[in-house]
Amino acid sequence: MTIALYARRKAWPLREVTVRLHHSRIHAEDCAECETKQGMLDHIEVEVSLEGDLKDEQRQRMLEIGNICPVHRTLTSEIDIRSVLQ
Question: Are 85 and 43 in contact (CB under 8 A)?
Fold first, then answer.
């Protein structure tokens, strides 16, 4: 949604955005760039498909925008969840 809104604001010829996610669990020790080194981690691969007569620079910029959208930032930040009964 963030990518589409950005393209619309820029008046870029984006016709469709498709995002596919592939989730798996990996050993933390197999992730060189991860801070956590013990246990298991959730691993999500994201495939973004942009349809339209777009320049390479526009496509790259939209990928960058997708990587800083609120959902992406939430998933890549430390998360503290506290459940309570009411």
Answer: no
Burial 14-34 (b: 16+ CB within 10 A, else e): beebeeeeeeeeeeeeeeeee
User: Is the pTM for the entire model greater than 0.85?
Assistant: no
How far apart CA 10 and CA 43 sit, in angstroms, is 32
Single out the residue of 7, 24, 1 nearest to residue 60, CA to CA: 7
Domains of the chain, CATH where assigned: 2-76 (3.30.300.20)
pLDDT in tens, 5-36: 999 999 999 999 999 999 999 998 888 888 78
Rounded CA separation 11/32 (Å): 39
Name the token pair of 59: 């496509």
- Look at the alpha carbons of 20, 26, 32, 34 in this order and tell me if their dihedral is positive or negative: positive
